[in-house]
Amino acid sequence: MNLQEINSIISKINNKVYSPVYFLMGEETYYIDLISDLLENKVLSEEEKSFNQTILYGKDTTAEEIISVCKRFPMMSKFQLVIIKEAQDLSSKIDGLINYLLNPMHSTVLVINYKYKTLDKRKKIYKAIQKFGLILNSKKPYENQVSTWILNKLKEDNYTIDLKANQMLVEFLGGDLKMINNQLNKLKLLKPENNYIDPKLIEKNIGISKDFNIFELRNAIGSGNLSKALVIGNYFSSNIKAYPTQLVLSSLFNYFIQIFQFHSLNNKSDINVASTLGINKFFAKDYHKAAKIYPMKKISSIITLIKNIDLKSKGYGVSNNSQQNILNQLIIQIMS
């Protein structure tokens, strides 16, 4: 997630400096929608939109129709705006735009929303867009980037958040910035005291337990606290819809991969650990502690163990009656 590039694009749009082509692609859709919506609000006035704004959908249009619309001249306006939503549904037909992209109309602002996918940089269409237009690859952020993003997003409205509360959101919602933004807006509507968001507020209004969550499970395992880890494991087994076994296993798998990476570092300063593992530097000390408990050889066994338990959780070689015990079996084996 290149925030510097994204902020530069947003700044230019706000200053009415437009590119003839915006190709917005990638897995993280939050900024694709944000930039597309910003262009929709900025390029034309409400009066100009009637004759000069066209919105097409990838599955319902063709390259020929898009080119035909883009070649029109604006009516009583400096620009016309053409937005292609769900452009990934154009599939291979998108190559039909190459000739237009090599010679775009400068009175047309063409916005192509190509979600969940990316263009191959070696393709002619990529090079054509690059020549006269703008390409944004909106990548899924790393964990430490999400934590910082939450802090900055709240800071815009003079809110602050407790570090644990921040991590609860990251663990529960992952890198889905759109979902996180929706939840932050929900919390801000509650007008918490001193504009401060703490774990209790999140537990009460979002449904993430401040004591029983994936973050706390990893902490318990990482610090060697077996009894606490088993209590959390039992809670997850009793709330399987909120904490699907595969989700928990995936988080534990990633956690032990990070500890494995920690072992391989020559420079184990907090800053380097945070940068390499993609975590907030405040949590680097926890990895120092976990690495003492879990040497590299044991981690290799744990990773194999998690993979085997993952198969069992999907019903391979285990009865339905044993499903609930899978997580605690894993915790005991990891920490034995």
How would you write the strand order of the largest sheet? 2-3-4-1-5
CATH topology of the largest domain: Rossmann fold
Which word captures the global form? Answer: elongated
Structural class: alpha/beta
Tally of domains: 3
Mean pLDDT: 92
Short description:
The chain is α/β, with parallel strands linked by helices and 336 residues long. It has helices at residues 3-14, 29-42, 46-52, 63-70, 98-102, 124-132, 143-155, 163-173, 177-189, 199-206, 214-222, 226-238, 245-264, 270-277, 284-293, 296-313, 326-335; strands at residues 21-26, 53-57, 80-85, 108-115, 134-137, 160-161, 196-197. It has 3 domains: 3-137, Rossmann fold; 143-206, Helicase, Ruva Protein, domain 3, CATH 1.10.8; 214-335, Zinc Finger, Delta Prime, domain 3 (Up-down Bundle).
How are the elements arranged and paired?
Blueprint: H1 3-14, E1 21-26, H2 29-42, H3 46-52, E2 53-57, H4 63-70, E3 80-85, H5 98-102, E4 108-115, H6 124-132, E5 134-137, H7 143-155, E6 160-161, H8 163-173, H9 177-189, E7 196-197, H10 199-206, H11 214-222, H12 226-238, H13 245-264, H14 270-277, H15 284-293, H16 296-313, H17 326-335
Parallel strand pairs: 1-4, 1-5, 2-3, 3-4, 6-7
Helix pairs in contact: 1-2, 7-9, 11-12, 12-17, 13-15, 13-16, 16-17
Can you offer a commentary on this structure?
The chain is an alpha/beta fold. It has three domains: 3-137, P-loop containing nucleotide triphosphate hydrolases (Rossmann fold, 3-Layer(aba) Sandwich); 143-206, Helicase, Ruva Protein, domain 3 (Orthogonal Bundle), CATH 1.10.8.60; 214-335, Zinc Finger, Delta Prime, domain 3 (Up-down Bundle), CATH 1.20.272.10. Helix content is 56%, strand content 10%. The chain has 17 helices and seven strands. The strands form two sheets. A five-stranded parallel beta sheet has the order 2-3-4-1-5, with helices on both faces. Strand 2 (53-57), helix 4 (63-70) and strand 3 form a beta-alpha-beta unit. The longest helix is centred in the last third of the chain and has 20 residues, at 245-264. The chain starts with a helix and ends with a helix. The relative contact order is 0.09. The mean pLDDT is 92.
